Amino acid sequence: MNQIDPVIFTDKAKCEDCYRCLRNCTVKAIKIKDGQAFVEENRCILCGKCIEQCPQNAKTVRNDIDKMLDILDGKSNIAVSIAPSYLGFFKKWQVRRIPSILRSMGFDYISETVAAAPEVSKKSIEINKKNNNKNMTTSCPVFVNYIEKYYPNLVDSLINVKSPMLLHGTYLGKKLGKNYKIIFIGPCIAKKKEAEKDKENNIDLVLTFDELNNYFEETNIKFNNFEESDFDEKGSKNSIFYPLSGGALKAVDINPDLISNEYIYINGENEISDIVKSDNISNYLIEPLFCHQGCIDGPGAFSFNETIYDRKLKIIELLNKDKSRKKDFDLKLDDSDFYKNFENCNVNNDNITEDQIREVLARTGKENKEDQLNCGACGYNSCREKAIAVVRGLAEDQMCIPYMRRLAEKKSDKILEKSPNGIVVMDEKLKIMDFNKSFKNMFKCSRSNLGKHISTIIDPDPMEKVLVNNNLTVEKKVKYEKYNLVCYQMIYHLKDEKQIIGVFIDTTKEIKNKKRLDTIKSTAIKQAHELLEHQIEVAQKMTNYLGESTAKGEKLVKKLIEITKKENDSENDELEEWL
Length: 579
Hints:
Blueprint: E1 8-10, H1 20-24, E2 30-33, E3 36-39, H2 49-53, E4 59-61, H3 65-73, E5 77-82, H4 86-89, H5 92-95, H6 98-105, E6 109-112, H7 117-130, H8 141-150, H9 164-176, E7 180-186, H10 190-197, E8 203-208, H11 209-218, H12 247-250, E9 263-267, H13 269-275, E10 285-289, H14 308-321, H15 354-363, H16 383-391, H17 401-418, E11 422-427, E12 432-435, H18 437-442, H19 461-468, E13 474-480, E14 485-494, E15 499-506, H20 508-578
Parallel strand pairs: 5-6, 5-7, 7-8, 9-10
Antiparallel strand pairs: 1-4, 2-3, 11-12, 11-15, 13-14, 14-15
């Protein structure tokens, strides 16, 4: 398979830890990493369920409007192949204005995809009659992805005929020439990938109705500013049934019903998942459409808020009013233009061993059958299925809610057990339900006290006050002479759990330390006073001594000055005499 840009993206900022997309994904093509859900492209069949189901709008379809604008700005002529379901999505008065709008945007040729649809049905019936083993039509790319990736044993049952989009691209390419670019517009996001895989069929780009409608809004294109006009090419009358369940057969005047012994039409993931597991389908021509009720419920048109029922009625009403459609349409294609091949793209050929599965189950406490609840909270249908996903790197152990609850309970138990504070749990009759090691040591009790009234250990008065007044939390310091203990205690009521909780903080050591500190302070103050008095006495003695010393020093200095003066005068007299 060729490398193709992802079609569905996840906005990490919006993705929450809910697993809703995984729960609703038919093939579980979601990878959970660090609690966030990402589409695993190689496993995805592009049904769009994850986009529809995401409550945070974190899943989005690749927007190709910029590519459309690049094509419109190019030198080529551009043709549009528009899926017939447009009749159901747009309002009735808007339908005949669509060609005018597209021409104003720069499109040169406007054609309905269903111009090629009846030929697809005819060729499929022809091949089925020649080879009963090929009995599944392939107009729905989601169904083709589903078979290629998850039921490769049924690839040979696929009728190797192009879808209407691809055949219409081949037809327009031959009719209009190489200078034309072709853009398909429809309700199916899987068509984006289908076109990219089959470039030789001339479909250069696929847009969804959502992309087109959003572009109209962003560029202020108003339907009422355009006049009605017609397509350059329209499909035959019955071909308009193609987007409805059973429409591929109806397009060639076959009316399958529930008791037909030749034809079966199915729609929706449940019917399709069911029929591919059956061993009794080889005698039928099967028309599968993965979306519920067909293409009118396509994931590329979520912005159109009408019900499926209303869309179906609108198509039928517009079809009955349209007298311009031919009964049939001749494409004049060569026989070789109809065919395409399908691949075995088995995504589950990784040979996961039982030992690997058992290791994951054991890691989450589910090694025994009775521990495998299969609750589905993680998004998988069974604990075993989730374990396989973990081995494949698609899931995490932490996705298991019961496992995480047990971990939380263990952590909670450890916190209670390791707490230096005494904790006791009582019921509303003040019978002891549990206590931790610190409480046991503080109040000299044992496990034999479980089930007994709290009064057998301590005064129940604070607990009774809490029961009388539900919103009250009793906090106070209490001295328990019996246990040589002083506690700061908090008593509160868990109404929903119908439990009374007591928390006891041992402050005995702090009080003893305070008394010891007070003694130390008193002794230190006394010693400080004694030291101060001694220092004052020493200072006074030093002052007296310094006073006496200062007087003697003054006399000595004066005498030295006098002697120096006399010597200087004598030297001066001698100098004058010599001169």
